Amino acid sequence: MPKLKFFLSFIVFFISLFPFSFSYATKVIDKIPNNILIYHRFNDSRFPSTNTTIDQFESHIQYLISKNYKFITLTELINNPSYEKKTIAITVDDAYQSFYDYAYPILKKNNISATLFLSTSTVGSSEHLNWEQLKDLQSYGIDIQNHTHTHPHLPDLSIEKIEEEIIISQKIISDNLGFTPHLFAYPYGEASEDAILVIKKYFKAAFGQHSGAFSLNDPYYIARFPINENFGSIERIKNASSVLSFKNTGIEPSNQKLNVISNQKRYVVNFFEDPSNVTCYISDFNGSIKSQQNIMNTVILIELERPPVKGRLRFNCTKFEEGTYWYGYQYYVN
Question: Is 274 helix (H, G, I), strand (E, B) or coil?
Fold first, then answer.
């Protein structure tokens, strides 16, 4: 069967299986970037995939200052997603001691705040912050938010267990810091339809760990650019801070959890505009995945040359047109 005919029949069949339910809620001013960076450890060479050296972090802050970015917390961004000045939000997951020892002094020196996502079961352990340190961060203005109790792979849990993670962690934070978090970050950046059902009950917005420009198209799976030793160059910071969001986007399957047995190779990305200048790159734990990509109206039909392996499957779609536009999405394959 000719490829075009194949893809036309494919999209008709695919839509019948996965009805489109895309959001049109973005409020970001198109030409003003309001992006988010995510860090984990600092000055800890044992874990290069999640570590950032102190020299790197200092250079990131100085670059962003030199380019006149306004530093804001995620609370500020979600409360006012239409800043008329370019902004950047520094976020840190897991509340490691190294944040307090190395990154926090740099933030204080430059009068910058950040958002810290906290898993409550590790508070006070040998490599994590204790409650007194967290209170110090809170009094300075660090925006502390929820990252579950035990940092599990949420897509592997039942709805009841996911809710238990949230209820326990919300109570512990409230008891120790005197407030109830309204923002959430998924451990490992892994979400699912079931997880989002629970998260919507307790939080105003939630964040992944997949690259992409900030957008409220999907307020419970917002992109953040991961930064580490290997992806911590000034060029990375320049690109991550300056990219723009597409006005509307959606992807099918929309459930972030995929069953590896299904050998899911077909995907539909809708940009609600002409996507002829858009290119999508797909990768999993085995590296990049080649794909056949065809355009039909506002949609890119994607068929992978091989099914994804277990782990995280990432889509990164970009367009270069009076700026760089970047849409990202992450699946959890298990």
Answer: coil
Sign of the torsion angle spanned by Cα atoms 51, 49, 38, 154: negative
Residue 189: strand, helix, or coil: helix
- Residues 254, 187, single domain; the answer is no
Tell me: do 43 and 88 sit in the same domain.
Answer: yes
Instruction: Give the count of domains, the chain.
Output: 2
268 neighbors 301 (Cβ within 8 angstroms):
yes
Residue 75 Cα distances to 137, 163, 205, 208, 209, angstroms: 15, 22, 10, 16, 18
- The CATH number covering residue 79 comes to 3.20.20.370
pLDDT confidence of residue 58: 98
Most distant CA pair in the chain, distance: 67
Q: What is the pLDDT of residues 62-79, one digit of tens each?
A: 999 999 999 999 999 999
The torsion angles phi and psi of 114, rounded to 5 degrees, stand at: -160, 170
Computed over its alpha carbons, how large is the radius of gyration of the chain?
Answer: 20
Mean pLDDT over all residues of the chain?
93
> CA 203 to CA 201: how far, in whole Å?
6
pTM of the model: 0.92
Q: How far is CA 70 from the centre of its chain?
A: 20
